């Protein structure tokens, strides 16, 4: 295992060296770095040109200059990174540090959401092959697949943001026409998804339509979009809603991972959910209260890990004979419960945030990665980041989500047609066991590779999205560098994306080995 | 449930394979593929639409290539500046409207479509040619040739296409669409090379290759006459997908300013130029986007149809309703013959062999019945 990883890492470094050499020379030969100065009328032009030549070593031919650049990068191994200077004489390291955070945030969020959505929808389409739902999703994913990302981004910016902001400023009341259309479409999707005979479809359609219309009407009439709290009259019933979600998570996770035939996993799931409900109120006054505790992203991640471990621990303690299943259920329910609590905490700052003087009731942002000079608690800053991330992430994830849906569907269908699935059914296993344990795990093997490869493409998409939404991220670094024939910032961008691509390739190989016991990494 | 079955009984699974056999009886591979492709409604519709778009784009504003100039039937040219009619709103005279200067957007979009189509085809041809040659050399000769070519592929694959495209575009963009397509093609072959190599690795071990070699065929003849035609499915399908990717990449590059440059035009460039006018002149924005989507969507659907057509494992699955009807017929027939009906869904199952799900083999929670035989999903064909 260790030798495999080391061998792969060495190969990756060699590949990266060759690729950076190629890109460096391509950029250096693509134009003239002194172009702006040659046309300038400044009196000290000769000095300026000489200063730039000295700063960027322009007197060295590009193939050799690459090695000067490389020795600066080599300093990273001894703690002194030197990515060189830009044409404007700024050190690239500083620019890169500022830009990287934004882009990585954007790419991570859109990728995670795209993977989850894509896999879930892909599975459901494969299980309902040749249904109206399947055909609909197939067409929609082909459509998304064919969308030019810059076009979607501009549309989202012009329609999505302005439309949503107008809607919020007008009091957040949904029009009856929209409610009617949305209700019918949701009902049809559920009816097609759950399937069965005509009577059952009609019942599914009825139930989901009533539920959807009810929720929308409630949201519309109580101004939920302006202040997303669950209230009836003056009573704040958030705890009821949060608790309901946690219990639903317990039932849902158990239904997928363990089934209800044996009691222990469900008991563990419910116990974790109840623990979450009990902890909800005390948490509001301690960890989640900004005047008591200063939250940060690393600490939040640590909390998430601890939460999952507690869930797994409860499963281990009370799992009995189904210990492994109970541990999985406990971990997932704990994670989802924690997630619900965090979402609820962010919702609490929604109203003060959108009514504040800087936002003035138009919270969906179209420019930049954060509101300039915004101040507030961790939760306000997080919400601000999220409102800025919303539209670019949607633009990015639409396209990769379409790909994931197609791949998951194809891969799962391929597996479901295998003999061992027929055998598993013939043995009398439940459909849940067949799909989750036998089919899904094997279907994941090719998907893992696709996801790893998709990261590089997603970063390319991020360059375009950043430009449309005016982000000052890595895409800007790359573009301004390229426009001025300035290899240093371009290389800073490329070395990060290239390293990420190679890293994810390695992860894909390891995931392969973890998912498929026939593959040995050595 | 009795397991006694009579051969005359139409079981679902038998019917399925009979149906499939009957369909391909006495047909050459080309005929089978064509037949399957034309059964795919989406693909056939897409092909018709694509042909119409190509005809429209090339006849309306004519062709202008390397100094050659053939006028089209449309009254305006993409670089003409007629007076602005009705504030540039779409009218009978200018069906797609006009921009602030007065350019007829229909002519501009048609020219942009031409350019995008041309770049797409050039990238497809160049990418496919390089990918096929490198992939087949790599897979056929193996050894050091293989490692050399594959390491080179790894290097190129590390550079995201849009990045390579932008850098190339910054250098060569002003030389025109054809050159741009040519250079973009040099970076688009990596995926195809890997797939072709994979096909060659398995095909070169087959008997017909040995037979050809015994008969004295040269390496070149074995590669191009014997192995390559057998890998044609993978190649065609992936070339179409490559082209769909190429058109999106080209428009994105033109949007960023690294693709086709003014005075010539491209769909991405039109969108980029008129993006700020979205509030006042939305038609400048809708039409070029619509044409990009139509072309990319058509190519993707054609690729899907080709994949279905070339896939030897592809079975035409009867719909749920057809299955049920067949099951009912079987049940009725059984009742008529006077004995209990079989459950059609299980009648064909190989109940005696218990296979193992590979992912479960090393799994910690194995509460399954004993495993009799392992099955390899990787060699499912």
TrEMBL record, chain A:
Gene3D superfamilies: MetI-like. The chain crosses the membrane at residues 104-123, 135-153, 173-193, 205-226, 238-260, 267-287, 293-317, 329-346, 386-404, 443-464, 490-515. Pfam families: BPD_transp_1. It is found in: Cell membrane. CDD domains: TM_PBP2. The keyword Nucleus does not apply. It is a multi-pass membrane protein. Residues 251-508 form the ABC transmembrane type-1 domain. Keywords: Cell membrane, Membrane, Transmembrane, Transmembrane helix, Transport. Belongs to the binding-protein-dependent transport system permease family. PANTHER family: DIPEPTIDE TRANSPORT SYSTEM PERMEASE PROTEIN DPPB-RELATED, DIPEPTIDE-TRANSPORT INTEGRAL MEMBRANE PROTEIN ABC TRANSPORTER DPPB-RELATED. This is ABC transmembrane type-1 domain-containing protein.
Automatic annotation (TrEMBL), chain B:
It is a multi-pass membrane protein. Keywords: Cell membrane, Membrane, Transmembrane, Transmembrane helix, Transport. SUPFAM superfamilies: MetI-like. It is found in: Cell membrane. Residues 338-381 are annotated as: Disordered. Belongs to the binding-protein-dependent transport system permease family. This is ABC transporter permease. It comes from Agrococcus versicolor.
């Amino acid at each position: 295992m260790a030798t495999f990883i080391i061998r792969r890492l060495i190969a990756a470094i060699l590949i990266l060296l060759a690729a950076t050499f190629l890109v460096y020379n391509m950029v250096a030969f693509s134009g003239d770095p002194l172009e702006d100065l040659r046309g300038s009328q400044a009196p000290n032009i000769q000095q300026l040109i000489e200063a730039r030549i000295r700063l960027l070593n322009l007197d060295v031919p590009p193939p050799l200059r690459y090695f000067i650049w490389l020795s600066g990068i080599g300093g990273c191994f001894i703690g002194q990174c030197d990515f060189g200077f830009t044409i404007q004489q700024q050190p690239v390291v500083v620019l890169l540090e500022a830009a990287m955070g934004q882009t990585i945030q954007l790419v991570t969020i859109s990728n995670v959401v795209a993977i989850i959505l894509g896999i879930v929808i892909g599975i459901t389409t494969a299980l309902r092959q040749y249904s109206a739902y399947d055909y609909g999703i197939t067409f929609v994913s082909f459509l998304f697949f064919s969308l030019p990302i810059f076009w979607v981004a501009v549309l989202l910016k012009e329609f999505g943001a302005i439309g949503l902001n107008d809607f919020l400023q007008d009091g957040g009341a949904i029009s009856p026409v929209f409610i009617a259309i949305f209700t019918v479409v949701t009902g049809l999707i559920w009816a097609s998804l759950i399937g069965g005979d005509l009577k059952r479809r009609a019942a599914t359609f009825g139930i989901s339509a009533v539920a959807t219309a009810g929720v929308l009407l409630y949201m519309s009439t109580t101004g939920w979009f302006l202040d997303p709290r669950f209230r009836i009259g003056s009573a704040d019933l958030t705890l009821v809603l949060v608790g309901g979600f946690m219990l639903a998570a317990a039932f849902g996770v158990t239904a997928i991972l363990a089934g209800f035939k044996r009691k222990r996993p469900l008991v563990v799931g419910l116990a974790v959910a109840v623990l979450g409900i009990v902890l909800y109120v005390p948490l509001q006054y301690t960890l989640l209260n900004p005047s008591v505790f200063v939250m940060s992203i690393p600490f939040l991640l640590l909390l998430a890990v601890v939460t999952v471990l507690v869930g797994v621990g409860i499963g281990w303690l009370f799992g009995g004979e189904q210990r492994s299943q109970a541990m999985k259920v406990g971990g997932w329910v704990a994670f989802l419960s924690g997630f619900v609590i965090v979402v609820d905490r962010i919702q609490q700052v929604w109203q003060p945030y959108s009514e504040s003087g800087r936002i003035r009731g138009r919270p969906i942002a179209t420019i930049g990665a954060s509101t300039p000079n915004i101040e507030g608690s961790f939760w306000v800053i997080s919400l601000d980041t999220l409102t800025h991330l919303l539209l670019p992430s949607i633009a990015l994830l639409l396209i990769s989500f379409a790909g994931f849906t197609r791949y998951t569907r194809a891969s799962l269908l391929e597996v479901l047609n295998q003999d061992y699935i027929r055998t598993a059914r013939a043995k009398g296993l439940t459909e849940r066991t067949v799909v989750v344990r036998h089919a899904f795990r094997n279907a994941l093997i090719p998907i893992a590779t696709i996801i790893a490869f998709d990261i590089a493409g997603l970063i390319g998409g991020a360059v375009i999205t950043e430009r449309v939404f005016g982000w000052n991220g890595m895409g800007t670094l790359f573009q301004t560098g390229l426009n001025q024939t300035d290899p240093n910032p371009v290389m800073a961008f490329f070395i990060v994306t290239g390293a990420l691509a190679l890293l994810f390739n390695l992860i894909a190989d390891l995931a392969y080995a973890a998912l498929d016991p026939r593959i040995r990494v050595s | 449930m009795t397991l006694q079955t009579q051969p005359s009984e139409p079981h679902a699974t038998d019917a399925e394979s009979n149906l499939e056999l009957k369909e391909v009886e006495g047909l050459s591979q080309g005929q089978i593929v064509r037949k399957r492709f034309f059964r795919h409604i989406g693909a056939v519709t897409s092909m018709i639409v694509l042909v119409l778009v190509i005809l429209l784009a090339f006849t309306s504003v004519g062709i202008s290539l390397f100094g050659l100039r053939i006028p089209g039937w449309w009254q305006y040219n993409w670089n003409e500046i007629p007076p602005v009619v009705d504030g540039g709103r779409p009218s009978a005279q200018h069906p797609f409207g006009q921009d602030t200067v007065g350019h007829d957007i229909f002519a501009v979009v048609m020219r942009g479509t031409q350019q995008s189509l041309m770049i797409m085809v050039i990238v497809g041809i160049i990418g496919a040619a390089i990918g096929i040659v490198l992939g087949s050399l790599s897979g056929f000769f193996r050894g050091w040739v293989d490692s050399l070519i594959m390491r080179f592929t790894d290097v190129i694959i590390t550079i995201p296409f849009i990045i390579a495209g932008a850098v190339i575009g910054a250098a060569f963009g002003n030389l025109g669409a054809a050159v741009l397509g040519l250079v973009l093609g040099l970076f688009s072959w990596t995926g195809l090379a890997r797939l072709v190599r994979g096909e060659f690795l398995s095909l070169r071990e087959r008997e017909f290759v040995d037979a050809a070699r015994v008969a004295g065929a040269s390496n070149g003849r074995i590669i191009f006459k014997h192995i390559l035609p057998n890998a044609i499915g993978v190649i065609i399908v992936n070339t179409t997908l490559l082209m769909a990717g190429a058109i999106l990449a080209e428009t994105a590059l033109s949007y960023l300013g690294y693709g086709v440059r003014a005075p010539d035009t491209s769909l991405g460039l039109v969108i980029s130029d008129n993006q700020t006018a979205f509030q006042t002149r939305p038609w400048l924005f809708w039409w070029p986007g619509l044409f990009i989507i139509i072309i990319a969507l058509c190519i993707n659907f054609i690729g899907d149809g080709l994949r279905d057509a070339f896939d030897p494992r592809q079975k035409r699955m009867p719909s749920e309703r057809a299955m049920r009807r067949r099951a009912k017929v079987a049940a009725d027939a059984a009742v008529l013959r006077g004995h209990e009906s079989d459950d059609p869904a299980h009648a064909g199952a190989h109940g005696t062999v218990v296979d193992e799900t590979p992912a479960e083999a090393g799994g910690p929670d194995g509460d399954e019945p004993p495993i009799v035989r392992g099955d390899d999903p990787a060699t499912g064909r």
